[in-house]
Design a protein that fits this description.
Blueprint: E1 5-20, E2 25-38, E3 41-47, H1 51-54, H2 58-72, H3 80-89, H4 95-112, H5 117-120, E4 128-129, E5 132-134, H6 139-151, E6 156-160, H7 165-179, E7 184-188, H8 195-207, E8 214-216, H9 224-232, E9 238-240, H10 247-255, E10 261-264, H11 266-269, H12 272-285, E11 288-292, H13 298-310, E12 316-318, E13 335-337, E14 340-342
Helix pairs in contact: 2-4, 3-4, 6-7, 7-8, 8-9, 10-12
This protein binds magnesium ion.
């Protein structure tokens, strides 16, 4: 079960329509697929470069994976803890590259034990209800996208905002009017506001009696004091996304009482191994935990879904990214029935690749 080879393959997948946030606008995904080969088993993982968030580009991910290959080569995958410790110790940062390798390793270990990954992690394979993301746009565009998502069977929407608060309030109002009072709304400002702007936004929507489930990453990622200021001035739960990459970030921001919950993403934290630690920290601290993804294809999101299905503390699912993709880069993995995600019952991640 020694690791013989780690290779990458870049697969470009166009999106059905442009995806826009306060940070970026993308019309295709560059999937850096990773294949890890051992005797008898091949594991698949995938990274996406999100330079404005993680600092990683396609070139840096491929270079990092080459470095990781040298560090892991010859290790026996059954010594899973040693393999994971080596993966994370062999270089600093490069979380998305590590995440791709991590999910391929979990894929192999699931295949070796002939069990789906969610079962290996202790889960019962529950279905997950994902939200649907509405890109940042004009009032009319956002209302239209929201109405369409509801028509397509989604009852939780995540609105991308983070511009001038007055404009954002009007967009949120238009969406609420378009979808009615029953639909649950999550707001993600992607660091777009100052702490005072965020509070001004929350005050305005409170005066308009617009209810939302949670507010994600209102201010700059490293502004933990700003996150705390927003949290102290609203009744709505404030979640950290870009503020938390590592388990250490999670401990620091929780110790400051700056947040009500954390949105875990494998591309930020370096994969399932570290995501489990963050989930355990949130559970121990009694704060909320949800799981999301970058704009990525179903390979990485399938890994996130296995984790989500295994951990009770993870109660929110923001795993709609594959629905934006025109053509999946691999067969198998999770399937969608509108907002409901079903996990594959095959060993490992459940993609159909040889080995
Ligand atoms: Mg976010």
């Amino acid at each position: 079960m020694k690791i013989k080879n780690i290779r990458t393959q870049t697969i470009l997948t166009p999106l059905k329509k442009k995806f826009k946030t306060a940070l970026r606008s993308v019309d295709k995904i560059e999937n850096i697929c990773v294949f890890i080969e051992t005797k008898g088993f091949t594991g698949i993982g995938c990274a996406v470069p999100t330079a404005v968030i993680t600092g990683e580009t396609a070139m840096s991910i491929k270079g990092a994976i080459q470095h990781i290959h040298e560090a892991l080569s010859g290790l026996d995958i059954r010594d899973f803890e040693i393999v994971m410790q080596t993966l994370h110790a062999c270089m600093k940062g490069n979380h998305s590259a590590k995440a791709a390798v991590d999910m391929a390793l979990y894929d192999i270990i699931g295949k070796f034990y002939k069990t789906p990954l969610y079962r290996f992690l202790g889960g019962d394979g529950k279905c997950l209800e994902t939200d649907m993301t509405v890109s940042i746009g004009t009032l009319e565009e956002m209302a239209l996208d929201a109405r369409e998502a509801v028509k397509n069977g989604f009852s939780i929407l995540k609105l991308k905002l983070g511009r001038e608060p007055g404009l954002d309030v009007n967009c949120l109002k238009a969406v609420r009017q378009a979808v009615g009072p029953e639909i649950r709304l999550r707001i993600d400002a992607n660091q777009g506001w100052s702490p005072k702007q965020a509070v001004s936004f929350m005050d305005k929507i409170a005066r308009e009696n617009i209810c939302i489930d949670l507010l994600e990453q209102p201010v700059h990622a490293r502004d933990y004091k700003g996150m705390k200021f927003v949290r102290n001035n609203t009744d709505v739960p404030v979640y950290a996304d870009e503020s938390v990459f590592s388990p250490q970030d999670a401990m620091e921001i929780i110790n400051m009482d700056a947040i009500d919950g954390i949105n875990i993403k494998l591309m930020k934290c370096g994969g399932i191994y570290n995501a489990l630690k963050i989930a355990a920290i949130t559970e121990s601290a009694g704060v909320g935990c949800m799981i999301g993804s970058m704009m990525e294809s179903h390979i990485g999101v399938t890994a996130a879904a296995h984790l989500a299905a295994a951990k009770k503390v993870i109660t929110g699912y923001d795993l709609d990214a594959p629905l934006f993709v025109k053509k999946a880069p691999a067969q198998g993995g999770i399937t969608y029935n509108a907002s409901i995600i079903t996990l594959p019952d095959l060993p490992g991640l459940g993609h159909n690749i040889n080995g």
